[in-house]
Amino acid sequence: MKIIPDSISNLIEEFSKLPGIGPKTASRLTFYLLTKPESDVQRFGQVLLDLKKSLKYCQNCFNITTESPCEICASPKRDTSKIMIVEEPLDVLALEKTGYDGLYHVLGGVISPIEGIGPENLRIAEILEKIKKDNSQIKELILATDPSLEGEATAMYLNSAILKLENVKIKVTRIARGLPIGGDLEYADEVTLTRALEGRKEY
Questions:
Q1: Would the pTM count as exceeding 0.85?
Q2: Phi and psi at residue 146, in whole multiples of 5°?
């Protein structure tokens, strides 16, 4: 005997596939939608259907946009001598809040042999080609991949690949890693503490 109708269990299953959403949260979201008016549910469904219809990747940085080039790449106020290399479009949203005024390059992930993702599966060839083409204009490349094993491996691979480019002299930097604001030393892992010590500055 089925306790939950298929329509409900199917939606719970789909919500559960989203990152950070477990079965309990998926169930709460599903039953919350059941309390909403039909018009709200229809609008929610339509928004999901329309999500990818008008979106595309920027021809320059590969960020998600509605127009190509995107607003960031097309803006005359951006510093075109700096390119921040990030993993995903979500990273661009986070970094824009910092006041960073340069350009971006979205890799589309990180090198992860376990998941079968190699350099050829990312937009690494595109950034290397951009460097060779705009060598005289680009002054700094900022590696802003996550401080995870995969992120570090990707940053190391990129740095090595850039160094191998002939007649290219560009400053390559890595975003600092260390303790988060409000964090306690006793809860920090060994790698984080080591990075914090390595990146210390005069006070």
A1: no
A2: -60, 150
